[in-house]
Automatic annotation (TrEMBL):
It is an enzyme of class 2 (transferase). Gene3D superfamilies: Glycogen Phosphorylase B. Belongs to the UDP-glycosyltransferase family. The keyword Glycosyltransferase applies. It comes from the Eukaryota. This is Glycosyltransferase. CDD domains: GT1_Gtf-like (cd03784). Pfam families: UDPGT (PF00201). It comes from Taxus chinensis. Keywords: Glycosyltransferase, Transferase. InterPro entries: UDP_glucos_trans (IPR002213), UDP_glycos_trans_CS (IPR035595). The keyword Transferase applies.
Amino acid sequence: MGDNGKPLHALVFPYPTQGHVTPMMQFSKSLASKGVVVTFVTTHHRHAQIAQANSSSEDPVLLEARNLGLDIRSAQISDGLPLDFDRSARFYDFMQSVDSMDEALEELMHSLNKTEPPISCVIADTLLFWSLDVTKRFGIPWISFWTQPVGVYSIYHNFHLLRSHGHYPPRGTGGLDDCIDYIPGLPKIQSRDLPSFLQLQDTSSDYVLDLLMKSFQSARRADWVLCNSFSNLEPESIKAMSTETPILTVGPLLPSSYLDSQNSRDITVRTSFLAEYQPSTWLDTKPLDSVIYVSFGSLVHVSKAQIEEIAMGLKESGQPFLWVLRPDIISSEISDCLPDGFMEETCKSQGLVVPWVPQLQVLSHPSIGGFFTHCGWNSVIESIAMGVPMLGFPLWSDQYTNCKLMVDEWKVGLRLIGGHGDNKMIHREEISSAIARLVSGEEGKEMKNGVMALRESARSAMNTGGSSEINMEALVEALKPTVH
Ligand code: UDP
């Protein structure tokens, strides 16, 4: 309840991609469990995609909320594109269209305010920078939600320092070894560890960078900034950012059954955009800590030549593997991407290749020994929370920085990095030898011990009295006096 006796009503609006919708849905559940009414906003297209993936004629968000006894409502607005527009193939066109959703949001907020309780705050993805102006027209708080680590937030927030030190605009491949040791709270990194848009310039980087600059201008005016991280993971970055911005870490945002054995009520995510294949029966037949789980998230594309090299690397490693190969991993047009005979021979004896899985369920299976990941932030934090060491293969955006932190700061995995430009490939020998290092020997044991320690910190953060749980409570308390 707000101070005037009315319940708080938060409009939660993630950027309409998988890696943003999932953690913000989980956040919505946390918020609603504290008595806040939540309206969760997605686009018509993503909403239809999630319903289809869940084979549900009913709204999956409402279904989820009903199962948990929470007041989470669901609303959709248009992203301005036809439902059959290929958002994967024309991703930057899709992003640009999302930038023009302000009128649709304003209309939605007016219509929601005709019901009780009226909206008392907007919690929007940091990338939806334009929602700040819409929200301020309603005279209510705007909270910016960042789905990447605090360290990456700090890099963008301190972009001016990259400029003043001559590291932006990027100096091309020759500058990739440059040392960056002046971002407050962030350990020393190289230019090659910066988010991709800051490493090398191309036309798409220009658009995304412009979006990020606008987003970080808006974020400076946010009433709070929330981040899917936790205090023991990034203490220095959090401390440094806190002197600049009211930042609260509220992660890892995962269903509580994965974090707290006492609380097994909240078990589902139900926000997958693709139908999930259930690999548990296959995993059950594999020895403890033996399987390499391979997935490159929901967005990135990988060349056919690279996919073939990965296939051969997995084969040569001799380890069992579970490989998520999205149907559009190369492009929407190319479905046949594995080497001849791979499915018939290698997969029969050693591996399983599927289009999508319930990732948390997979990572929590005792047979999983390592995660060969593109280092999307959700994947990294999920792997940490499930105690699985990683093989990092960053390809885009914050993945380079996440990989650097994962390998050199937290020491819970190894890095596989190809060159830039034409030499981007990683080769089968590098892959098979990195897998061997990850799952065996002293080095493998140290990474496993390190990730198990972080797993404990992740769990403590979310349990009663933990830092993220305290921050959630503090947020709700702080919002109460703002209810009109
Ligand atoms: N994911 C999943 N099943 C899969 C592959 C990925 O559920 O087969 C989920 C994963 O658990 C994570 C999200 O998709 O929550 C991907 O987010 P991430 O930040 O790792 O990468 P992105 O897709 O944004 O590149």
